[in-house]
Amino acid sequence: MEQHTRQRPRLKNGVDMQLQAAFAEQNWTTVIRLADKRHKASKDPYYEVVKVCAETQVDGVVDKAAAAVLVDNWVRSGAVPKDLESIELLEWACDSDGDMSDYSTTFGVLHARWVKANPRNVAAATASLRACLQAWDLANAQQIATILDKSSHTHDRRYMFWGILLTHLLAGDVAQAESKRKIYGMLAQKQLEKAAEAAEAAASTAKIIDNKNKVSEADRSLHTEEEFLLYLRVVATHGTADNYTQRALHKTAGAAAQLLAAGRKQLFDEVLEQLETLKRWDSVFDLCRQALSMSTGDNNDQPSTVACDVRVWNSFIAAAQKSDNPEAAFDTVQSLLFITARSPKLPQMYTKNVGLALLQTTFGLPPALLPEPAAGQSSLQVEQLLTFIEANLDKVSLFDDIRLFTERLSFAQAQDLINRLTDTTPSTTLRKVLVFKLRYLLTTCPETRCPRSVLYNQTEADADAALLRGDGGLRLFELACKVCRNAAPASYGCTHCLQELVIGSLQLHRTLSDDADFIAAVPKMDKDPRIDLALVAGSSLLRLAGDVGADKGVDTSSLLQAALVLDAQQRQTPDDITLRLLLIRVFLRLGCGSHAHQLWQPLGVKRSILDALGPLFYDRLSTVAPGLFTGSSTPKKPLLMDPLKQYFSTVLRHPSAVRIWDAFAAGSYSSILDMAAYHGQLQRSCTRVMTVVEERRAARALGGRLDDGLLDDLASDLARDDAPLHNSTDYGALPNLESSFGAPLAEKVSLGPGLSDMRMQLSLLAERYLEVISFKPAKEYKPAKAAEAAARDKVYLLESLARIQFSLDDLLHASAQPAAHLTAGEWAYYTAVSVLVSFATFSLGNTTGDATATAPPIFSLLTESLTTAVDLLRKSALPPTPSSPTTSALLRTFTDIHSLGMLRETAVAVKHTGAFLGAFHDKENARDRTGKSGLGKEALAGAAAFKTLSARLLADIKTHVKASKDTLGAPGWLDRLSETVSQPGDGEGEDELTKAVVVAVGGSAAVEDWAGHLLDGWRETIRGLGQVQLD
After folding, report:
1. Is residue 254 within 8 Å of 263, Cβ to Cβ?
2. What separation in angstroms does the CA of 457 have from each of 454, 572, 686?
3. Crossing angle for the helix pair 1004-1026 and 887-895, to the nearest 10 degrees
4. Which residues contact 668 (CB under 8 A, 6 or more apart)?
5. Average pLDDT, the chain
6. φ, ψ for residue 302, nearest 5 deg
7. pLDDT in the model for residue 303
8. Cβ-proximal residues to 157 (8 Å cutoff; 6+ apart), any chain
9. Where are the annotated coiled coils located (predicted)?
């Protein structure tokens, strides 16, 4: 964990000014002398502590450990510190080396002993509790809280809940034994149940008190909302489902009763969510019915805020759908919804929420309750959608609100909806834009495609040609579009419909851009409609481009047109975050890391948002744009990864969550549990792992080496338990016009699958392996017993490599679909690393040195496996260079730079493995002249082969980079790229589509300017690759 050295404390009151001045001035020699003199004179152990702490600040190795030795002696002897100031000084002295991992067995024990000896000193005991909490020493903190509760003369009821809360946290601490965790959980539950029983008895005769200031300090029952939240969370964790349901729905003290009496909405929401998790749908229905029946106002004629909460309505409707009698349940839903919707005092701000509840109800009705539409009339679902659309047409969130409902329509209903919207007069701009978005949405729905026979359209010659191509001969069926009857491949949809969307949306875009009145009105709008039109056109073009990462079948023209349209719109509306993020992904896929960086910087993503949005830009960046990592860090221009590093360094500076003590002092128990869970997620964040891995890969590519200890800190945090890494990437920040039946388009244009536990664990293991084999002891290190030291080093190497090998193999074979987590280049790289680890392990375990010994066959098998993995990656990353490079070939080069980066990483791993084995053999031979400690001949042959292989791979990469640079430097690329974008293809409709693109972005001159912009980005990428060390 990233450690921050704590501030130097002040000496306690009563210390003479001479010693205080020397301590403040850090004159440690004088402090040692004066403290020793005061200790001998007064026999006060505090001065001994001052002396020891001062000794830790001088240069002597023995002196630096003086504080740790004193603390260890106190713990072992059972000594009780005289004052807390001594403990505070010792904590500061021991924290100077950044290692406080043993806090619970050292300072935590001392704090607990002191509090036990001085239970009535509440202020000091609270300070000890705070210190243990900040170090996340739950065991000693729980003891201190219990002592405060039992011994405090103040009778502060908070101490009881502090102790219960800490007991509950201990029950979830993996550092505790399983038997102890069960006891802790049972104890916390029993204590809170006792307090709850008293609260339930009191609630039956008195009103629930929500103001904690009115609660007697001696009252040990539950009163505040936070206390009930803690109680129900403990029961949910350690109790049974029946127990939780009974407690949560208690007549006088349950969630509904407290919502009615004291408006405790958070308690109600948590109970509702937990009941849904437990699938207690009858209880969910009853709870929602009680809450939605609430009214406010002088005459109880105004709907409550709960009745306007769409989340409660969704739960109510979901419970009705799962009811044993859905017709009766929906009658109740409709009656309550009718009362709420017809209320004359319904707040205007909640009108949309009630409309969403009406939509949810309409689409959730059982078939028996759905009326049959009259001839020529629309279905109830379509009518309700149209009503909602007309009422919320000016809302930015309209499309997201109706997207899931629209994709549930049948094809006939969807067509009816589009026709009704199109035919509505007057046809406003917002309605036209919505129609384009809905039409695009429908192209991604399987409901708009159907299989049809193609035998009538295939001759015997076609079948023979198909056999020669190897695609299976006769195709009996193909997918066709129900709208236009053209072929609609499952991979991207109907070509004709997508082309029509591009043409129509861009023509409207141009019309709006030429309308002076519209341009003048844009600043008054919540969102420029042209952004949505550009997104529809760009998304359609990206789908027409096909699989960007494929070796063949990519439509170069469509891909570049999509980037052009999105970039042109971003220049017009630079403040739109979603469009900017999508364009960042597109530029990264096109190999223009510098352009993506220019778009990322103005966003100013900071603090907690980095954990969610950072991967959208930083993930795999070291493989496609290593040149961005160059430079030196300054306050005005930090290094690329500095924001992420500083964020995690700040929030993880303590083992506990930041400001957790404030939550304790305020009695916000639910916040404490949430903060602890969030802090644990940050410790195990995929983004945190990505930060370490990307920076190390970039440093390695640029010929450097990182020794900042972040890899060890990360490994230490992750070793505490086996919980999976947490991925908090926020893909919701990217625009998404697709249906839920497929992956969002923003993921399709990414460099590969998003962050996942499997990929991050593999990357950590690979970095750990390179760290182990690259370690070199300091030159001053010369052990007195070289043979014993060598034996220990060998045991450590074998154990480390064995652990890495086992974990790598387990992860690589655990997933049935590695493509869901890894790119092809990453799969080949981690496979190669796994083989290298196995080879190194067997080599160290076969140190015979006997030239006549028979080598195990495993060496040749591992060498063949490595060759296979490397060859596959090499063919992907280094395709044959055509004699006359085309635009498609150039684009293929830059859209797959990631594979080139993984090939480089593979070559470096092979190189380091060969160097490690050779160095180990030379070292052992130099130490043991008999030659019996060196490696076997097969291992040495493998090491030599690794050096040759890595040199060849690096030379091939260097040649490829130079060839790409020469190709890019050839004249004529500006015209060729411009022609690729602005000249129509051979397909039907290409002419009109290309014309629409060119006109929408500003004409041929704008296309040429953008082509030059793209070339500049590629040249910058090549310049960055030229800085990579390939020797």
Report:
1. no
2. 5, 47, 51
3. 50
4. 226
5. 88
6. -120, 130
7. 81
8. 215, 217, 218, 219, 220
9. none
Report the b/e string of 703-734 with b at 16+ CB within 10 A.
Answer: eeebeeebbebbeebbeeeeeebbbbbebebb
As beta bridge partners, residue 479 has 451
Integer Cα distance of 325 and 664 in angstroms = 46
At 667, the amino acid letter reads G
CB contact at 8 A, 928 and 892: no
10 Å CB burial of residue 987 (0-12, 13-18, 19+) is middle
pLDDT in tens, 50-105: 999 999 888 776 678 888 899 999 999 999 999 999 999 999 988 865 556 789 99
d(CA 46, CA 35): 9
CA dihedral 655, 657, 659, 662 (to 10 degrees): -100
What DSSP element (H or E) covers 303?
A: strand 302-303
Low-confidence ranges of the chain (pLDDT < 70): 1-6, 61-62, 96-100, 152-154, 203-218, 297-301, 453-477, 490-491, 548-553, 633, 635, 708, 847-856, 930-931, 985-989
Single-letter amino acid code for the residue at 140: N
Structure tokens at 1006: 């704008």
Residues in the chain, total: 1031
* pLDDT score, position 473: 46
> Ramachandran region of residue 4, left (φ > 0), alpha (ψ -120 to 50) or beta?
beta
The predicted pLDDT at position 288 comes to 93
User: What pTM value is reported for the model?
Assistant: 0.91
* Contact indicator for 1024, 595 with CB cutoff of 8 Å: no
Q: What is the pLDDT of residue 251?
A: 84
φ and ψ at 49, to 5 degrees?
Answer: -65, -45
Nearest CA among 517, 521, 528 for reference residue 569: 528
In 3-state terms, what secondary structure has residue 296? Answer: strand
Residue 374 neighbours by CB distance under 10 Å: 7
904-918 burial, b at 16+ Cβ within 10 Å, e below that, comes to: bbbbbbbbbbbbbbb
Which helix (H) or strand (E) element contains residue 449?
strand 449-453
The CA-based dihedral angle spanning residues 814, 820, 825, 827, taken in that order and rounded to the nearest 10 degrees: 0
Smallest Cα–Cα separation from 82: which of 12, 144, 6?
Answer: 12
Count of CB atoms situated within 10 Å of the CB of 846: 18
CB 308 within 8 A of CB 354: yes
Residue with tokens 């498609």, as numbered in its chain: 888
652 neighbors 721 (Cβ within 8 angstroms) = no
Angle at 893 between CA 892 and CA 899, to 5 degrees: 100
Query: Which tokens go with 518?
Result: 């519209």
Which residue from 143, 263, 241, 136 is spatially nearest to 717, judged by alpha carbons?
Answer: 136
pLDDT for the residue numbered 459: 54
